[in-house]
Design a protein that fits this description.
heterodimer; A: alpha/beta; 6-stranded parallel sheet; 6 helices; about 25% helix; globular; B: alpha/beta; 22 helices; 12 strands; about 50% helix
Chain lengths: ~200, ~475
């Protein structure tokens, strides 16, 4: 720290932040949900509008279509009916405090999302005891459920409203990918290869 | 330029000659770099306010650097309040000691690492291995580099120097997989091997793209998910960052993340941005029990104190300047003999390692200016390369022949009469050199120019005399263009 101060030299610059530049403000978009679906689609995310009443059955069908038998889920109240429907459909929920190897054996992850960013088609996921980070990461398939009004225009809009940060705030734009070998894009490098968003 | 006296000096000329003889390198770079360039330009063109974003980003980074001490102490206080730990490392040795001690004192046996240039810079892996700890690189490109016993050759694309076929050979040898040249099958094999490492690791080590002083947040940007796994699954997370990465406000990310993703890989947004604020909180089921942030100086304060080079600390390691550099495209990252290659490497390496070791690097540039045009934080790289050339000359690193040549050249170019006399003479001399319309070989001491390329002959008339005669003939349009 002493070296940093010496390098900055003198005392003239030691007052805090009078010259921090103004940053561009968020730019509103006409219909964030429509733009979100378009942009997320461009990076390979399947986005589908689902009515609230139809959500539990639709999620159960999502599991059936993909052969998903064991799921890591967020334990949030909004997903209560979804978890019940999955139980009826014979899909096993892996507890969030199960040994890591058991959690890694799940073949689907079902989460909510705190925000969606329209400009980039990005999901923003918070963390707390009911919102484990690994649910959107370990399984090869990830389904996120978001309410239409949670979709905002851009990154500046997120930083204007995200408030006190959780231990991890994760921005997810499409399936995990790598183009390291031969410059050929491959999905599912380490995280999910298949990402679906149901907009309620 | 002639060699310096230091035995560990980087021999960019020799390295480049070796690189130019490697057809596989040319094929690999010729695939990756043009694609990266195309994607970057397309992504930048989608943003109408691109130029003003660059200007704001440069200002934001300048502001952060001008108050670096304040932001870093604020960051430290915030992270401590969240239950994390901040360590200060003056140089590479300090940083290695801190991290090895952390691993030892926590009985760590296995470490997973996500991509981090600063850990390359401090040569962390050999130090951990010497302490008997297994370290596995988990970014796919870095994993390949580690299996091959090489070093990354590009800030963003570590195996930009390797073809799919050479990775296939490596995977057959090291992973025992059935030979496949399909990137998809190779990526699957690496995913399976590395998944086991994530589940078994006691510690995860990551780099840091940005750290936010006001919130105590470490921001990590990636596409694969290996950084998320490295920072979530193991019980200890160690994040390593250069001191220049701190930003005062969360809102600064709104500008810098946009520029980084588009400049690096032409994406609107990188797949994963992890904003980590402290270790796991009570009741949470995943995330590390301990979070450590290691702040590395390792020469950066020298840059900070250097008015002509300080702007280089704005760098957000997007790699765009590498992708557009005509020298980098031909010789690749390894020729620079340092962790950082390309134009930014030719500035950072002499600045961080010393002009004696790396004084030749700034000469490995045509000063075409493409790097400055694409830099998302507007670092004036050509000006810095020139400045470092001056310093190399003052340090006596440039040989007698080169100095004499430069003096004669300066004298000739200063006077139009001398220049036209010189070109008239050259037109006579070139008669014996031109073969099939090209100059294929120049005599000593100019032979270096034609070792790997031919040169066009001088035109029969110079532009200057053509222009004059054209005006004399009264050829209308030309004068008003």
């Amino acid at each position: 720290l002493g070296r940093i101060r010496a390098s900055l030299g003198g005392t003239g610059e030691r007052t805090p932040s009078p010259d921090a530049p103004d940053l561009p403000r968020s730019q509103p978009v006409a219909d964030p949900a429509v733009l979100f679906a378009e942009r997320a689609g461009l990076v390979g995310v399947h986005v589908e509008p689902v009515a609230l009443e139809a959500l539990p059955d639709r999620v159960a069908r999502w599991c059936a279509e993909r052969g998903v038998r064991r799921v890591l889920t967020w334990e949030i109240a909004e997903l209560g009916p979804v978890r019940e429907a999955l139980e009826r459909a014979g899909v096993t929920g892996v507890p969030a405090d199960a040994p890591l190897a058991d959690r890694a054996a799940a073949d689907g992850g079902i989460t909510g999302a705190d925000w969606g960013i329209a400009e980039t088609g990005t999901l923003v996921l918070s963390t707390d005891p009911a919102r484990p980070r690994l649910a959107s990461l370990l399984p090869p398939r990830h389904l996120a459920v978001i309410r239409r009004e949670q979709i905002i225009s851009d990154l500046p809009a997120l930083f204007e409203r995200c408030g006190v940060l959780p231990s991890a705030l994760t921005l997810i734009t499409g399936p995990s990918r790598s183009a390291d070998i031969g410059f050929v894009p491959v999905l599912g490098a380490h995280g999910p290869m298949d990402v679906t968003v149901f907009v309620v | 330029m002639s060699a310096s006296s230091r035995t560990d000096a980087i021999d960019i000329v020799g390295n480049s000659e070796r690189a130019l003889r490697d057809p596989q390198l040319a094929q690999a770079l010729g695939t990756a770099l043009p694609a990266l360039r195309r994607m970057r330009s397309a992504a930048a063109a989608q943003v109408p306010e691109w130029e003003s974003l660059r200007a704001v980003a440069a200002q934001a980074k300048d502001h952060a650097l001008a108050h670096l001490d304040l932001h870093l102490t604020r960051l430290e206080a915030r992270i401590a309040a969240l239950g994390g730990h901040v360590h200060w490392a003056a140089d590479a040795g300090d940083a290695r000691r801190i991290i090895v001690d952390l691993a030892r004192s926590r009985a760590v046996r296995r470490i997973v690492k996500s991509k981090s240039m600063v850990t390359e810079e401090i040569h962390l892996n050999p130090a951990l291995e010497a302490a008997g700890i297994t370290v596995v690189e988990t970014d796919l490109g870095e994993y390949v580099v580690q299996l091959a016993g090489e070093t990354p050759s590009h800030i963003v694309a570590p195996i930009a120097h390797k073809t799919a076929a050479s990775v296939a050979d490596l995977f057959v040898e090291k992973l025992g997989m059935a030979r496949s040249e399909k990137p998809e099958e190779m990526t699957r094999a690496a995913r399976a091997a590395l998944r086991a490492e994530f589940l078994a690791a006691d510690m995860g080590i990551s780099g840091v793209n940005f750290a936010i002083a006001e919130t105590g947040t470490v921001v990590i940007v990636e596409n694969e998910g290996n950084a998320r796994l490295s920072t979530t699954a193991p019980r200890v997370h160690v994040a390593v960052m250069g001191i220049e990465k701190v930003l005062p406000r969360l809102a600064d990310l709104g500008v810098l993340l946009r520029l980084l993703a588009r400049s690096a890989t032409g994406q609107r947004a990188s797949v994963y941005v992890s904003m980590i604020t402290g270790p796991r909180r009570p009741g949470e089921h995943d995330g590390p029990d301990e979070l450590h942030l290691v702040l590395v100086d390792n020469g950066r304060t020298r840059l900070l104190a250097d008015p002509s080079l300080r702007d280089a600390l704005r760098c957000i390691r997007c790699g765009a300047c590498l992708n557009v550099c005509p020298v980098f495209e031909r010789v690749g990252g390894h020729a620079y003999g340092s962790v950082y290659g390309g134009p930014i490497g030719a500035v950072l390496t002499p600045a961080l390692d010393g002009i004696e070791r790396a004084g030749e690097l700034p000469f490995a540039s045509s000063l075409c200016g493409a790097c400055a045009e694409v830099c998302p934080v507007k670092i004036d790289l050509p000006r810095m390369l020139l400045e470092l050339r001056h310093r190399a000359v003052r340090a006596g690193m440039v040989g007698v022949v080169d100095r004499a040549f430069a003096r004669v050249w300066t004298a000739l170019m200063r006077s139009p009469a001398r220049l036209s006399a010189l070109t008239a003479l050259a037109r006579i001399v070139q008669r014996v050199l031109v073969r099939r319309g090209r100059i294929e070989r120049l005599p000593y001491p100019f032979d270096g120019w034609t070792r790997y390329r031919t040169a066009p002959p001088l035109a029969a008339t110079s532009f200057r005399s053509w222009w004059v005669s054209r005006r004399r003939e009264g050829g209308g349009g030309g004068t008003r263009a």
